[in-house]
Amino acid sequence: MRQRVRRRAGSKTRRSGYVAFMLAFAALLASCAATGAASRAQAAAREPGQTVVSFTFDDGEADQLRAAQVLSTYGMRGTFYIIAGAVGTPGYLTRANLREIAAGGNEIGAHTVSHLDLTKVATAEARRQACISRDTLTRWGFSVRSFAYPYAAHNPTVEAIVQACGYDSARIGSGLRSGPCPSCTPAESIPPVNPYAIRTPGQVDTSWTLGDLENVITTAERNGGGWVPLVFHDVCSGGSCGRLSIAPDTFAAFAHWLSRRQSLGTIVRTVAKVVNGRDAREVGVATAGAHGVVNGSFELTGNSGAGNPALESAGPGDLAKCWMRGSYGRNAARWQRTRDAHSGRWAARITTSSHTSGDAKLLQRFDLGACSLPVVASKSYVLGAWYKSSARTQYAVYYRTFSGRWVYWTSSPYLSPATSWTLATWQTPAVPVGVNGLSFGLALFSVGSLTTDDYSIAPASQFGREMFLGVVVILIGGAAGLGGLYTHRAAVARAAKALKSRRKLERVRRARAPSSSSSP
Ligand SMILES: [Zn+2]
What we know:
9 helices; TIM Barrel; binds zinc ion; 2 domains; Jelly Rolls; elongated; 25% strand
């Protein structure tokens, strides 16, 4: 059974079992920040009054290869901000594509590992996202000097993190003059006012015409020149294209038009060329330490960082902290937090009202360890959760590779419907080599209702050790058979103790938990 998680609110369908990234782009509609400081810092690297244009591409979608080929026919080059964890997954550029693009003189920049909003994740996770994407792309042989913020979301803390990772610059998604911001300054200065918040005339989407594209360039030309970084996503047309796309014909026509303006002094450069920063350097960053399921009882909300993966959700604040909604196939599912809890105040309920194929589930957020589960290759893990369900359920398990790519891994056997709270435990196979992260959840794959609570994970080796000790006790206990009794009682006592401490934890959590939100 192959599964994946819905990507970008279901605007595209992906065929294989690889997990794609959930890119909800609501945050990209950020209002443009008009600045008055634009005309200062006109520096070298260009003729006075010259206009410098950068083609920048976010996310590393597969259709951007065509854009690189169009640019190369005019001798122009672009900057491709890559989501390291998405490389090679369906719909995204492969490493071979990246090599081809770089070989053409284009720049490979980074756009985090998991496309999380860095302003909404813990500082340590933001550092991993920014630094590890650069390290991974560097390890693959690319000289990575430029960064772009997912959802264009940035603040001084995040800017400092990106700088500390060794990037020379970081690009946002607004601040220069375009339709939504007629009073913005027409061009970024060179060097930029803030190299870790390079401004752009919004982001090109389906509402942009060829005339709009030409207009942002000629406006800059008429106003003393400067730098105009353009932001592109998909280069495609047709029903499966999202809002953040440009038709290939329009893109080609604009590239052709722009190439003709070189005679007027307007030039095209990569971001790194314009910023002209120092050499790339390596920066070490600590990986996440082992931990159990964070917010396994759905008591806490907010700080999802994963954007808004389901259309019906009002926003990330509605999600239980560290959880994301996963689904694939054709079905109508609803997620909500519910007071019908096994412990604490909250549980999570999935209700599927119609079903043709696929499933719906909650998963630990696909990140680099703040919420997803750090695991060790060749170890097995015991997954646990309490559930009530009107239909069969099963564990769906995903893993993360060293480069940050999430892949559907395996599923447990089916678990029977249950009208009262039932504990589901399942031991995974040994984690494959090259894997260091896990995310799992109980899935609903038919019409019905599934309520889950108190998710847990533990290395199976602990159980193994205890079984070994039990065997030793049995041997010592010998003929009296006390050993077996002892191990059984010990196991019961351990389970009771664990339950007690969990309840204690719940009481503490209850005292601290915010009293808001009605959905997961
Ligand atoms: Zn992006």
